[in-house]
Design brief:
The complex is a heterodimer of chains A (100) and B (212).
Chain A: H1 3-23, H2 27-51, H3 57-87
Chain B: H1 2-52, H2 56-76, H3 80-104, H4 114-138, H5 158-166, H6 172-193, H7 197-205
Helix pairs in contact in B: 1-2, 2-3
The chains are: A mainly alpha (100), B mainly alpha (212).
């Protein structure tokens, strides 16, 4: 399969992640959408590295993305728990303390 | 009752699209095409299921299919180490974290609205399709096929990645920086998620007590 097929899959996964964030009213779906978007970027990095450049740059980028995604997931989960303790709800629209 | 029918129609359509993708892959590129179509269908089907399912637990498990499919795509892209790291970290780590989040928050089975799902899919899908057509029509990539001959066939193995990490001319600074970032983020996560003494008092007063 050529480069275009991988880029196409990556674009579709990116769109699914955006839809997941926009459509569902639950913070956990926002997290899952972010993971999908990061994974879509990873597919692109690895595909371009495989078909294009000679070094390891793309794969290294993908590894650092995975590392940062792990850190992001841990912090995001802690924030979700705190939001739930504070507002007794995990809808993103109900965390509105700064608006008052 | 109609919920059951809807669910059946959705999974029927998903299975049908998977079969179509497998057939198209087999016709266009033989066994390699079948493997690619299988992993791509796993990836995208998991994503679609994640958006569709009403229960967060089922969405999280659908996301597992997505991550597994991406690991397969990495194998097809000759990046064995990345595929392994993908399964270890995403399926074994991040998904478990999300499931923790699911278990620590109340379920809300009435949250999904088909109108929102349909409208969001239509708008984002149309935008993506338009952008993809623009890009496909205007950008000419220098490489679209297999890499040139005379290169090492596999540069994504564990040995190459490890040497790249530790080589002084490689990625050692980024590697150390990532270690520091990970440490700081995890300590911060533990600190944020910790329940403070006042919270424990509130929690003892009643379940889900709102802190004032």
């Amino acid at each position: 399969m050529g480069l275009g097929a991988y880029v196409g899959v990556s674009a579709a996964l990116f769109a699914l992640g955006i839809i997941c964030i926009l459509v569902r009213r639950n913070v956990l779906y926002v997290l899952m959408g972010i993971e999908m978007i990061l994974n879509a970027a990873n597919i692109n990095f690895v595909a371009f590295n495989r078909f294009g450049g000679n070094g390891l740059d793309g794969r290294m980028f993908a590894i650092f993305t995975i590392i940062l995604a792990a850190a992001e997931a841990a912090v995001a989960l802690a924030i979700v728990l705190n939001v739930f303790y504070l507002f007794n709800s995990i809808k993103p629209s109900e965390a509105d303390l700064l608006r008052e | 009752m109609s919920e059951v029918l809807l669910q059946r129609a959705f999974y029927g359509a998903l299975a049908f699209l998977t079969l179509v993708a497998l057939g198209a892959g087999a016709l266009s590129a033989g066994p390699a095409g079948i493997a690619f179509a299988l992993f791509a269908a796993l990836t995208l089907g998991g994503g679609v299921m994640c958006i569709w399912e009403r229960s967060v637990v089922r969405s999280a498990f659908a996301l597992m299919a997505t991550f597994g499919g991406i690991a397969g795509l990495f194998v097809l892209l000759e990046s064995d180490f990345l595929a392994m790291a993908q399964i270890l970290i995403y399926v074994g780590g991040i998904l478990v974290l999300i499931l923790f989040g699911v278990m620590l928050t109340p379920p809300d089975l009435k949250e999904r609205s088909l109108v929102r799902v349909g409208a969001g899919t239509f708008v984002v899908g149309a935008c993506t399709l338009w952008l993809a057509l623009q890009v496909a029509g205007s950008v000419h990539w220098a490489v679209t096929s297999a890499p040139r001959d005379g290169r090492t066939p596999n540069t994504g193995g564990a040995r190459e990645i490890g040497v790249g990490f530790l080589d002084a001319n490689g990625y050692v600074v980024a590697f150390e920086l990532a270690a520091v970032v990970l440490t700081v983020a995890l300590v911060a996560a533990v600190y944020i998620a910790r329940r403070k003494r006042s919270d424990l008092v509130t929690a003892a007063a009643g379940p889900g007590g709102r802190r004032v």
